[in-house]
């Protein structure tokens, strides 16, 4: 039994390979800049950013994992590293003793604020300033459509760190 798979035409292939390449290169570039300038990974920066905009700078681990598109084990490991550096703290959720909350500490907020200019400069240099306003609009539209496919109809998650 053989299965026939529709091949991509030249336009489809160029778009797909371009997207895959950017998805592989951009995270490494963001990680490199943040590690060099601030001693944190892009994911750690993302976690701190989400907490910064959360009510009382606090979220349940499960909500934080969903917002950052992370698994609980990965997030727990990262929160342990952040906690050891004094950037976050964890404590039992008052509403549900089985759940754990994560809170951004004042030191974590300061680290995030210090990391922000270099991160924004890198985002501008690599993406924003390289595109025309029309291309930025097109990129926003394209990524919204793809995100909708990935989210499978669920409401859009917060993304304050982009």
TrEMBL record:
Coiled coil: none annotated. Transmembrane segments: none annotated. SMART domains: HTH_MARR. One of its GO terms (molecular function) is DNA-binding transcription factor activity. It comes from the Bacteria. GO terms for biological process: response to stress. It comes from Myceligenerans xiligouense. Residues 1-148 form the HTH marR-type domain. SUPFAM superfamilies: Winged helix' DNA-binding domain (SSF46785). Gene3D superfamilies: Winged helix-like DNA-binding domain superfamily/Winged helix DNA-binding domain. This is MarR family transcriptional regulator.
């Amino acid at each position: 039994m053989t299965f026939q798979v529709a091949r991509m035409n030249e336009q489809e292939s160029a778009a797909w390979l371009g997207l895959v390449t950017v998805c592989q290169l951009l995270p490494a570039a963001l990680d490199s800049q943040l590690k060099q300038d601030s001693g944190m990974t892009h994911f750690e920066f993302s976690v701190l950013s989400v907490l910064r905009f959360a009510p009382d700078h606090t979220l349940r681990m499960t909500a934080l994992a969903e917002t950052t598109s992370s698994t609980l084990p990965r997030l727990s490991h990262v929160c342990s590293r952040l906690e050891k550096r004094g950037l976050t703290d964890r404590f039992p959720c008052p509403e549900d003793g089985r759940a754990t909350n994560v809170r951004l500490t004042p030191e974590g907020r300061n680290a995030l604020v210090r990391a922000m200019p270099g991160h924004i400069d890198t985002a501008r240099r690599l993406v924003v300033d390289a595109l025309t306003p029309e291309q930025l609009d097109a990129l926003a539209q394209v990524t919204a459509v793809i995100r909708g496919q990935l989210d499978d109809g669920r409401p859009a998650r917060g993304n304050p760190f982009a």
